[in-house]
Amino acid sequence: MRFTSLVIELIRARPRLIVWIAVLLQAAMWLFVALVFYRSPPGTLATLLAFGREYQVGTDLGPPLPIWLADIAYRAAGGHMLGVYVLAQLCEIATFIALYHLARAVVGSQQAVLAVLLTMTVLAFSSPALDFGPLVLARPLWALLLLHSWQIIGQRRGNAWFAWSIEAGLLLLTTPAAIFLLLLIVAFAVSTAGGRRTLRGLDPLFALIVVAVLALPYAVWLMRAETLTLPALPQGSELNARALHAAWLLGGLVLGAAAIPALTFLNTGLFAGKGEEPPIIYRPPVAPLARNFVYFFAVAPALGAVLISGLLGLESVVGGAGVVLLMSGLAVVVAAGDLIAMRRARMLRMVWAAAVVAPAIGVVLAVLLMPWTGTNEIATSMPGRAIADFFDESFARRTNQRLRAVAGETQLASLITLHSGRPHLFIDDDPARTPWMNQTKFRETGGVVVWRASDTAGTPPPEILKRFPGIVPEVPRAFEWLVTGRQQLLRIGWAIVRPKGT
Predict the structure, then answer these.
(1) Are 125 and 359 in contact (CB under 8 A)?
(2) 315 shares its domain with 277
(3) Are residues 355 and 415 in the same domain?
(4) For residues 46 and 479, what is the distance between their CA atoms, to the nearest angstrom?
(5) Residue 1 confidence (pLDDT)
(6) In this model, does residue 183 exceed pLDDT 90?
(7) Residues 99 and 22 grouped into a single domain
(8) Which positions fall inside the Glycosyltransferase RgtA/B/C/D-like domain (predicted)?
């Protein structure tokens, strides 16, 4: 009897089980990393939560849905970041499960597993795992939108229109790239005979009404926003630089998906053993419309996002790499043919596992080793809870009132706003960003002003002295990093602005 690995047999017999095991193990891995090695939120997540506390319809961070959901998850977890980390991983799980259902409708259950596993390697390298925000929330919404778009266009299932309209409206409330993504769906529908048939009924009109109702409050805020600025189009002399920038962005996307060509190359006949009879993963024939659907949404979002980002000079790809590369794994599986031979399955498993685990290992090594090799700060190594507790308690002891607002350096101030009292964040160098607080309100309620201390006296930076004249700096407070290494202690200068009447 010819031996076949257990994984291959499970892919054949229980494909959905393999998908759930893979995505749950990946989610558990990232939650373990966060709980053990993160003492502060990654990226700008603390600022996102500070904005979410205010429940504004719109801010300069973008549409409100991810900001609101982050605050709800934070409160539901009792003021612990675990709730936000779990929310980020739920988005990751929902993305892959929706992609599995879409792939199963196109290439069958068995090859759908391969599509999901390939896509996991892409998203592991190219998109954030724990830094919840628009880029993370947009992924499951885009995956669900593609799934129901295929059900409408390819399977003629009219009952999918309602779900499609809800997802489209939520995507508009999640990322500014939603308009670009929705236009791609409309372009595909108009360019195909099956898509044009679906647009002739009343269902698209009802869906449009639902989308408009969901997006109306944010659309009104956009029209009224006085601080809203659009990126300027490049001048003729800037075109070369913008084209080079677009090339770099495209190269970054290709690099993020590098594990797919690596796994494909390792599965070629060059690495097949002599006389080996590799197991076969089969599928039913793929319809031409389904093939075009997969190829279009694997290529058009990436190229369109790179073109827009390069033209406008944006630092990152519009929509995020996790969105524009979502269909890359399925596209490779569709192109591979009806029969996919799994040569050297053990080696393929090892390379795939290394590609999925490598980003988490990189985070752990950076936290443990970088403090010993240089002076670069790691934001997640800041003792966020200790910082927030100290300044909240210090303000309460001095004024006999709870802390209501924090100003100064945005990163440090955002960490303090995560205290259980949830004080307001005041971005004093750009007050328009925080319309719920201004200089007058800050003086009335009182608060703490923080900055990085550059000396033992805690002298405030000149720009802070200019905005808060007359503040008396306190003795700087030193905090230890998670791993101190060769770094100096984190010294925070601070001053109290007493509430009026105290």
Answers:
(1) yes
(2) yes
(3) no
(4) 18
(5) 40
(6) yes
(7) yes
(8) 63-221
